[in-house]
Design goal:
The chain contains 9 helices and 13 strands. It is an alpha/beta fold. The structure holds iron/sulfur cluster. The site of iron/sulfur cluster has 13 residues, from helix 1.
């Protein structure tokens, strides 16, 4: 079984319990306005350019393709860059190869484990399930997810992984569609299933100024938490550097909100509703 990954990061302490190795799978069905990892969006290999060390010779731009009005780097760009700044993002790897690599650090990861992130790891569900099957009982596994995938697949993954980091972004479906490009209906169904499954998980709320940090949204999410008996969340305040990686793809970062506005941390609402929280 082949998958497409774009990074493996070791010694992560934010992607689940303990020290973990995080595998980033390529491809995501959402287009969150605040996405800070655009490399994870496309389901295909693509060429990215490091911004550090560029001498602005434009050798890469001169041989780039224009697709739908956007600049797309080509193989010739990789060859022509005198500074060696262009590279492929996306590596095909078999589940056997990947799991063998991950299990080499089995001892070191005994107090932590392996986290599958992305992109959206559920978007390569066959590959993900194959990896989870191979790792079952050998190493602790976690899935960092938006929860967006068909419920049948989600149930299979819940049956195989040990832990979930589940994003809840916007409680209102209209706003969810506006800011992420997809409805939250299937996400909320999957969340209910996860909460009643007995599987360990943590809810994460990205705090995006004027979008997800509004009182209305936090109250809406708190209602969802209460319905599922959840009394702890992790908060991820918006990172002002979110747009930095778009230049690597020759893309502009144009969020649908004013990123200069300070994030509101919803301490009062969470405390009032007895929801404990940690700011990451
Ligand atoms: S070819 Fe390399 S050095 Fe020249 S503009 Fe492109 S990235 Fe910069």
């Amino acid at each position: 079984m082949q998958g497409l990954i774009f990074s493996i990061e070791e010694f992560s302490v934010y992607d689940g319990p303990g020290i973990r190795t995080t595998v980033f799978l390529k491809g995501c069905p959402l287009r969150c306005s605040w996405c800070h990892n655009p490399e994870g969006q496309s389901y295909n290999k693509e060429i990215v350019r490091s911004p550090n060390g560029c001498i602005n010779c434009n050798n890469c731009i001169n041989v780039a393709d224009i697709v739908d009005g956007k600049t797309v780097f080509t193989d010739d760009g990789i060859k022509n860059c005198p500074m060696g700044l262009l590279r492929y993002s996306g590596e095909n790897i078999s589940s056997e190869q990947l799991c063998e690599k991950l299990l080499k650090n089995q001892n070191m990861l005994q107090s932590g484990g392996v986290t599958f992130s992305g992109g959206e790891p559920l978007a390569q569900s066959d590959f993900l399930l194959d990896c989870l099957t191979k790792l079952k009982g050998k190493i602790h596994t976690a899935i960092q997810t938006s929860g967006y995938c068909d419920t049948q697949t989600f149930k299979k993954v819940v049956g195989m992984a040990d832990y979930f980091l589940f994003d809840l972004k916007l409680a209102d479906d209209r706003l969810h569609r506006k800011y992420t490009g997809v409805s939250n209906a299937v996400i909320l169904n999957n969340f209910s299933f996860l909460a009643s499954s007995g599987r360990e998980f943590v809810v994460r709320i990205p705090l995006i100024p004027t979008v997800t940090d509004s009182d209305e949204n936090i109250c809406g999410i708190v209602n969802l938490l209460k319905q599922s008996g959840v009394n702890y969340v992790e908060l991820l305040p918006y990172n002002q550097m979110a747009g930095a990686k778009y230049k690597m793809l020759c893309r502009e970062y144009r969020p649908d909100f004013d990123e200069r506005v300070a994030v509101k941390v919803p301490e009062r609402i969470l405390r009032k509703n007895n929801v404990a929280f940690k700011i990451l």
